[in-house]
């Protein structure tokens, strides 16, 4: 039986009282208290034994998000929030620029269904790169290498165990790892706070590295607002824990796509109804959906996640105000009440 230990970055502040650190079974991080190893027989079942009842509908659904150019914003110092597609965002607050989970290029297994709203070369002057976890639709070597070259001042904020992964990709800038419920050290006088928080997910990039690095979500406190980036997560009790720790969230960025078939996806992502439930539990005042429309990862038709999420909102089942931006559209988050 694997030994059980608890891990955290002892140089960082733990914001949740009494939290011992992330539980590990041997070298694998637990998903909270339990060890979760995805059953990859489900991949075979999905790809070869399961018929998609929406196959024809999915094939006919050619919807893609609208795209507008955000180059002017990137070259400015204005506050704003921009969705680059999938789970990639640029957030600027008081002249500080943050970039979340950037995927800038196509790869063998991931091909964008819509263009980026800017040239990758425009992503300069990035202060913090926030990497929620190491799955390939959130972190790829080409994107990370370009960003490291273009931003020598870049500071990477991520989870435990990720630094060796990143240093194997590029001549890595400063990397700061955190466990759940830990606050990153941004130095004295920093105009914002960033915490690494739980997510119900898992890690794997290769054949023998399952759960060797941590996954999580981010909370940013800036301009007297709380912005929560849910990253990849299934619906679980951590949403209630986050609300109990921090109170109402002002702005919630949450995934609504890649949820069918349920036997394959339900332990990795939230569907639109679960995303709304999570945002409601967080008492989010504003909700920005993500993780849909950019890559073909699952069986639901392309337009279904956002269409369903809008139906939930118009039906009065979403507490916060829904913002469904075009890719590249600048959202004035700092002005939202």
TrEMBL record:
Pfam families documented for this protein: Lactamase_B_2 (PF12706)
Q: Which residues form the Metallo-beta-lactamase domain?
A: 98-292
Q: What is this protein called?
A: MBL fold metallo-hydrolase
